[in-house]
Design brief:
By secondary structure, the protein is mostly helical. Helix content is 51%, strand content 0%. It has four helices and no strands. The termini are far apart.
């Protein structure tokens, strides 16, 4: 048993390693499980996965949520005007009502 080495890793060391970037020796599912178990966030520059089929209503709805969140979170440079109804938004709402 001379060839085997055992390493003990602390939870904080694993969290720090996961924050620095993707785990090289772990598979995608293993890394995701470790992140969830330890509460380790993704690196700030990491892109989020999009798990939705192109051309579906779910994609359209997700894009609408993303745009809305972006517009709410970006710093405003000028006073905001009163909200107006959007033709595109009305089309989306009508299409979703017909489906459901």
């Amino acid at each position: 048993m001379e060839g085997k080495k055992t390493a003990v890793v602390t939870e904080s060391a694993v969290q720090a390693a996961l924050r620095r970037g993707p785990a090289v020796e772990l598979g995608a599912e293993e890394e995701k499980a470790m992140r969830m178990r330890l509460g380790a966030s993704l690196p700030r520059g990491a892109r989020l996965e999009r798990k939705v089929l192109e051309g579906t209503d779910a994609e359209l709805e997700l894009l609408a949520f993303e745009i809305e969140a972006y517009l709410r979170l970006r710093p405003s440079r000028a006073p905001r005007a009163a909200p107006r109804d959007s033709r595109t938004k009305e089309k989306i709402v009508r299409a979703l009502r017909k489906k459901g």
